[in-house]
Amino acid sequence: MIRNLIAALALLAPAIARPALEKPNVIVVLLDDAGYGDFSHTGNPTINTPNLSRMVSEGLNFPQFYCGSSACTASRYSILTGRNPIRSGFGSWVLGPESPRYMHPNEVTLAEGLKHQGYATGMFGKWHLGTPNAANQMTPDTLPLAHGFDQWLGTNVSHDYEHGTNLIRSNPQGNSPVQGYEIIEKDILGNVPVLESLTKRYTDAAIDFIKAKKDAPFLIYFTPNYPHLPVHASKDFQGTSLRGLYGDCIEEIDSNLGRLRSALEQSGIAQNTLVIFASDNGPWIKYQDTAKDAKYGEARMLIGSALPFRDGKGSTWEGGQRVPGVFWWPGTIRPGTVVQAPASTMDVLPTAFALAGEPLPTGRTLDGRDIRPYFNADKFPGTVPSFTFAFSGFGDNSIGAIRRGPWKLHTKIASQTGNNYGFKPTPEKPLLFNVEQDPGERIDRAAEQPQTVAELKKLLTDYAAGVEKEGSFWPPLPKPDPKAKGKPGAKPVDEDE
Ligand SMILES: [Ca+2]
């Protein structure tokens, strides 16, 4: 009787919270194709994102924040490995449902490192780093559980493939498409009820995960499918935003951000949790003038804004890779912190590993940095290494531009719009912009800054040579052969990005 009473009391007693800096929980929220200018805190006049604004006012805002690539797969490789996607060996910036390649098992991911430190690891949302298919012998190495995640609910690729986009969850008893998984819905592109349910469905699962894992450290990688085309919002949010369906979709994500926050607060672990918010690339402005599209509808109304930056998804202009970068950790990051120095999603892994006590992986180059001193210089003394950033905005992940300090040098330009804005750089005659004084990259300074041009040309050449020398975990691909459809070395067969 007494023993039962003590046991019952023990259940009622609140768990003793661990110190805030001891293996903090990490939640990474990564939107798909949202632009820099799509949020209240970046000045959008008709999209209301109060929950993100609250994270900004209570946490840290990086106005100069970059994602790892201007396309989905390559960017997701970067945030999960801390490495530039030119190191991936994918041979393409997007891996469709038929692509043979996937995240190589030798890569060390954010989830693997934190799992090694005892974290529970959950993923909720789009993966896009491999699909089991005939070209890779249906290997389960293509999917999240092979890369450090304990559980997953989400889609293997973007939701706009005619065939091969499936809503999948991990299930130890499941065997579709491979052992350990269960396909919940197949080919979801035309399945509007499922598409409208995704954002809330992922959040519900993430909240269940928070409640179940609150007494020990955890990682949540939360990757909504939106606002990638086709854009959807649930019935509760349709027609609620001044911006139309695109705004409804973003506001639904913002509202669910608030639900995640409430779950942390109700579980008493907000002070033990670092939340990071970013987008995987800029808005898909290739469709900004498309009045009617079979898959995407009136796409021109459903494209976000990269302003004040030029271009968007799929380009080496700043609009391809400038995204919101918000970090929230109450009690550790001081409210209202603004760090004007540049940072990127590649910094997430080295920073999270340092917080968890996990050594950095060896035998490979990491491009990201430990940026903890930006959070709070008293709690994390030290200096952050200087920022050098290579832009790999091409289908083959090759480098077209490099930034150091305020200067950005372009040797070739990628844009899905077909517009070069009047510029024609070459490796011999590159463009040079001061992207702090001229964020829209309008005024070429190359002629008046020959010394800077020479230094950045050398930096780019040396960086590319270093990548070439190190290689990737995948063998080199043969030269593209348009006839070799679906085989390694083939031109990517999937246009979806
Ligand atoms: Ca994307």
From TrEMBL:
- UniProt region (Disordered), positions on chain: 470-497
Segments forming domain Sulfatase N-terminal: 24-357
Q: Which interval of the chain is the signal sequence?
A: 1-22
Q: What superkingdom does the record give?
A: Bacteria
Question: Record keywords: Aminoacyl-tRNA synthetase included?
Answer: no
Keywords from UniProt, A to Z, are: Signal
Keyword DNA damage recorded: no
Q: Which GO terms describe its molecular function?
A: arylsulfatase activity
Q: Which CDD domains match?
A: GALNS_like
Give the protein family: Belongs to the sulfatase family.
Name this polypeptide is given: Sulfatase
Species source reads Luteolibacter ambystomatis
